[in-house]
Amino acid sequence: MALINIATHEIHCKIVYYGIGYCGKTTNLQHVHRSIHPNARGDMLSIATETERTLFFDFLPLDLGTVHGFRTRFHLYTVPGQILYERTRLAVLNGADGIVFVVDSQAEKFEENVQSIAELEMNMRRIGKDLMTFPLVMQWNKRDMPNALPVPVLERYLNRRRAPSFEAVAADGRGVFATLRAISKNVMAQL
Fold first, then answer.
1. Which CATH number characterizes residue 63's domain?
2. How does pLDDT run across 155-185, given as a tens digit for each residue?
3. Residue 140 in contact with residue 103, Cβ under 8 Å?
4. Residues near 125 by Cβ (< 8 Å), separated by ≥ 6?
5. For residues 49 and 31, which has the higher predicted lDDT (pLDDT)?
6. Contact (CB, 8 A) for 71 and 9
7. Highest taxon of the source (predicted)?
8. Whole-prediction pTM
């Protein structure tokens, strides 16, 4: 749920990058952080877990302008992807205004991706949200891998909602900003 700060004329929106462990969630945020001018973003903060980390940083997107005279700030989060951290994923998801579901396109990760999107649906119900009407963007990451599944297969089995989707190679930045722009616009449309 977006937070509106009347005193500073800002709207704060939370976008959560969700997906299995090592699918590229953190890589997406690191690329955005490196690419945005330091005056337009905050520091990247990390909440350490034993084997993975959840990252947070915010920035002021210059291209989205204002909404009724209010500047918009997006706080970007990742969830830890490993099964062990389901409660942490639920906590990070709480209060989200939009979700980027990052898919590891490799064939051997397909079943994990299917389980992860099913868990996302369940977690959304737990916090009283319907994923069918919630701002969601799918990112088909690791498209450069030789064993990447064809996009039509990913669309058929993982994108039943027909959410906007983007091919990406987050490691070199391909598709990262297209994904971020799409979810930002989707969130702004909801406002």
1. 3.40.50.300
2. 999 999 999 999 999 999 999 999 999 999 9
3. yes
4. none
5. 31
6. yes
7. Bacteria
8. 0.91
